[in-house]
Amino acid sequence: MQYIQELELDIFSQNTYRYINAKQADNITRFVKIAMTADGEKIKPEEGVTAYFRALKEDGKSVFNPATINEDGTVTVELTEQALACPGMVDADVSLMKGDEVLSVLSFRIQVEKAPVGKAVASDNEFLVLTEATKEAQKATEEAKAATEKANTAAKEADESRNKADEAEALRQAAEEGRDTAEKTRTQNEAGRVTAEEGRDTAEQGRVSAESDRAAAETTRQSNEEARESAEDDRAAAEAQRATDEDTRNDQEAARVAAEKVREQNEADRKANETARQEAESSRVEAEAGRVEEHEQMMKEAQEATEDAVDAATHPPIIQNGTWWIWSSESSAYEDTGWTARGNILYAAFFVDMVDGVLYMCTDDEYDGPDFRLTDDGYLEVVLYAGNGKE
């Protein structure tokens, strides 16, 4: 039974984070089919390119096996028992070579899960490339040996036929050429092994460097994750603050709108009050002007009345030539009233002393007319008597 896992690797990228899963000492024959890309574009190896599978197990043992380049350009790698003998992470790569030149190395990892039960396979180095090269060399040597033996047999039979001798010579030369070819193949395979070993060393250095880069990248990732979490906390806090500020702004805006309405109403009231004040002020000014004018008129009339009263008080009525004479303020002289001044006087004369404010009543000694009196509220009343002498 075969189980094939597919994997895509890019020759220009670090693929150390790409890995496949396998189980230790799995009885199922496992293969990995690798599709190669260059910056995401699928590529196909050119003619004459050979593929090799290399792996470094966690116990330090290595695997160096041949891989197969398929017609569609993919590379198939067999995961042998030795490749999966040691549980843990296996650093692996596929090397593309043309002659002694390494064209590209595509790295990946194999996560080998420890088998809970079953017979474990002792982990060891596995170099099937060298084994196959040795087998090919042995095969070539055996072929050369067989050819040599055949040539020797032909030489022994040379006496029988020259033609057979020539044929044997040709076979010998062919065998020699085969031996030379086998030797060249062995030499080339040895060079390939050395190159592969150098590639393994390079891959190991690359693995160590990649592991350092991975550790640094992991540290950076953790730092970035912490920074992201901190930034997320800051963002959440800022969002909460923004929501609070937005609520406050909405409240302030509502208060501002209400205050604006109050202000507009107050402004309207102020304008109405100002208009009323201006009208009141205008009325007050008019009233004040009228009051001043009225006061001035009253003062003038009071002054004239006072002058007349003083004039009259200082010039009481007199009897002259048998008639009453009264003072005229207009002519500043006494004028004859024509009233007879004989017998009991029929009326009383009054005047107010403007200095002390005392009201004086003037009558003749023989006056028997009505009496007069001042009330509490300042009115002058005439007191009339009935026939019995009572009011």
Give a description of the structure:
The chain has 391 residues and is an alpha+beta fold. Helices cover 47% and strands 26% of the residues. The protein has helices spanning 128-156, 162-314, and strands at 2-10, 19-23, 29-38, 41-42, 50-56, 62-69, 75-79, 88-98, 101-113, 318-320, 323-328, 333-340, 349-352, 359-362, 371-374, 380-383. Strands 1, 2, 3, 4, 5, 6, 7, 8 and 9 form a nine-stranded mixed sheet that branches. The protein has a three-stranded antiparallel sheet with strand order 10-11-12, with no helix packed on it. Strand 10 and strand 11 form a beta hairpin. Helix 1 (128-156) packs antiparallel against helix 2 (162-314). It is rod-shaped.
What is the CATH architecture term of the domain at 1-126? Sandwich
Span of the ends, CA to CA: 161 Å
Reading the helices and strands in chain order gives EEEEEEEEEHHEEEEEEE
Low-confidence stretches: 386-390
CATH classification class of the domain at 1-126: Mainly Beta
Average pLDDT for all residues: 82
* Rough outline: rod-shaped
- Rg estimate, integer Å: 73 Å
Class from helix and strand fractions: alpha+beta
Proportion of residues in β-strands:
25-35%
Number of strands: 16
CATH fold node name of the domain at 1-126: Immunoglobulin-like
Largest sheet: 9 strands, mixed
Summarize the structure.
By secondary structure, the protein is α+β, with helices and mostly antiparallel strands.
